[in-house]
Design goal:
The chain has helices spanning 6-30, 79-109, 117-133, 138-198, 205-221, 254-263, 270-298, 339-344, 379-383, 409-415, 433-473, 477-510; strands spanning 40-46, 68-75, 225-229, 232-237, 240-244, 247-248, 300-305, 315-317, 320-322, 333-338, 361-363, 375-377, 394-395, 402-403, 422-423, 430-431. By secondary structure, it is α+β, with helices and mostly antiparallel strands. Strand 5 and strand 6 form a beta hairpin.
Length: 517
């Protein structure tokens, strides 16, 4: 038997359901521009009809419905797109950092330009060529000194900038470790809150959105995989648990990240890009610049000493010691010397003695190995440019051996080093200093171009996946306005239905059986 007030209850259910739908629509509209928000919808279904199966059946035909109700409010989200977004986002994070690092390296090297290292190096060799035209010219000697200082300063500056870049990357790794720890802590706290709320039968939609947003941001910093379990998100990095339920499993600091990179568990993301930039890119270019400086000073050079040259007493070349009459070369002699230092020590300066020249370059601070960071002009030459050796000839016409100061043989040989191959200290390169520097610049250009290409590709993929994800989860104001009108009309119709049925009941209760009164 149908209740007299059955339809009042039907109208009430409809009003409650449409009100909830309108409120949810308003919530969607309010969060249309909220980062990480997922569109929510009210899942409506017909409520249980009267006289369901297994109840006593009345003689009235048909099964009378009882209206509408909603069983849940859920967010519209597709896990596959979330996973895809995070995978592409972590690639983008690593490549974007490497691209930025290589761009900074290009700015440090500053080639090709009119003010870069190559120009300084060309000026250095040109000053030797000018000095060879007049070895006794004091001005030319001072110019050699100044261009040498410019050359060593340029190398020192590049080294300092590389060190500063490495330190910046170190600092950024520390900042990112704190950021990671914060995200992991937030995810763990949200896990606990979500489990608590959903244990009561509700859907913690907004908290789940916040948790997904934290996970998205984390995925750009490091490679993570996420598994949803009854205890919440389980966050892992190549199988290493980071978050389990409401607990953070690791203390993330720079040492942890460096160890993870070394162990091969940290394979992508911004931190991976930072460590790779520091330990591979910056370190490699620092090593190449150190090798370049050491090669210039001490690299093996095959040089031909012209006949008539007089070597300083007790000079050792290719295992042969030259002393006495053997010091004067009767024929051209092809020998190997140790860089510009070794060649400079074969000549004579204008310091008033007939002893060999001093090493042209030294390591600042008393170091033994010359690097880009410590290469410097010998302090003796810095104090007295007359100690720059230019001559390979002496004379004993007066009975005392004296240096022929106007001889320019050594100055010419030193000027020609610009086009002379020099074997690097590690033996891997045998080319002019200019060619070796060009190789560094060329390598940097190719690496930078590749990093830019990879960054552009990964950024495009991130945007593409995010667009697809937004098409599913994002709020469309046009769609929400349409829904708002739809739910409003349904609410109005339900209210009108309740009013109509109220009028029927009023007639039944207050007017039936009153005829003749």
């Amino acid at each position: 038997m149908t209740s007299t007030f059955h339809s009042i209850e039907t109208a009430k259910r409809s009003l409650f359901t449409q009100t909830t739908a309108l409120s949810t629509t308003g919530h969607n509209v309010a969060n249309a521009n909220t980062e990480g928000y997922s569109r929510q919808k009210v899942n409506m279904q017909a409520s249980i009809p009267m006289e369901p199966f297994a109840f006593l059946h009345s003689t009235t035909p048909g099964q009378l419905g009882t209206g509408v109700e909603f069983d849940s409010i859920t967010r519209v989200r597709e896990k596959f797109l979330d996973d895809q977004y995070r995978n592409e986002n972590t690639n983008f994070g690593s490549w974007s950092i490497q691209r930025d690092t290589l761009e900074k390296l290009e700015a440090i090297v500053n080639e090709p330009s009119d003010t870069g290292f190559r120009t300084v190096m060309d000026n250095f060799y040109k000053s030797w060529s000018d000095l060879s035209k007049n070895p006794e010219d004091v001005t030319a000697r001072r110019i050699v000194k100044e261009t040498t200082l410019a050359l060593t300063d340029a190398m020192n500056q590049i080294s300092r900038q590389l060190d500063a870049l490495s330190q910046d990357l170190d600092s950024n790794i520390a900042v990112k470790s704190n950021e990671i720890q914060g995200y992991l802590g937030n995810i763990a706290n949200l896990n606990s809150a979500i489990v608590k709320i959903e244990s009561l039968g509700d859907n913690a939609n907004d908290l789940r959105d916040q948790r997904d947003l934290m996970t998205d941001k984390l995925s750009k910093i490091m490679n993570v995989t996420v598994t949803d379990s009854p205890q919440g998100y389980q966050v892992q990095m190549n199988g290493q648990a980071l978050v389990t339920g409401g607990a953070v499993q690791v203390a993330v600091d720079p040492a942890f990240l460096n160890d993870a990179y070394t162990a091969g568990t940290l394979t992508n993301g911004e931190v991976h890009g930072m460590i790779k930039s520091r330990d591979t890119l910056v370190s490699d270019y620092r090593k190449q610049m150190d090798d370049l400086a050491n090669t210039l000073a001490n690299g093996d050079i095959e040089i031909t000493l012209p006949a008539g040259s007089v070597l300083p007493d007790n000079t050792v070349l290719d295992g042969v010691t030259y002393t006495g009459a053997a010091r004067t070369l009767a024929t051209d002699l092809k020998v190997t010397v140790k860089g510009l230092n070794g060649l400079h020590q074969l000549g004579y300066s204008m310091d008033g003695t007939n002893s060999g020249g001093v090493p042209f370059f030294t390591a600042a601070g008393g170091g033994t190995a010359i690097t880009a960071g410590n290469i410097s002009l010998n302090a003796e030459i810095l104090a007295d440019p007359n100690k720059i050796a230019t001559s390979l000839r002496t004379s004993d016409a007066s009975g005392t051996e004296t240096v022929i100061k106007g001889n320019n043989t050594l100055a010419i040989l030193l000027a020609n080093l610009k086009d002379t191959p020099m074997k690097s200290a590690d033996g891997l390169r045998n080319a002019t200093i200019g060619a070796q520097f060009s190789a560094i610049v060329g390598q940097l250009g190719v690496q930078s171009q590749e990093a830019a290409r990879q960054t552009s590709n990964s950024e495009f993929l991130v945007e593409q996946v995010d667009t697809r994800r937004q098409s599913v989860s994002g709020v469309s104001l046009d769609e929400e306005m349409s829904n708002m009108i739809k739910f409003q009309h349904a609410y109005n119709a339900s209210a009108r239905f309740m009013t109509t049925y109220d009028e029927l009941l009023d007639k039944l209760i207050n007017s039936t059986g009153t005829v003749g009164r």
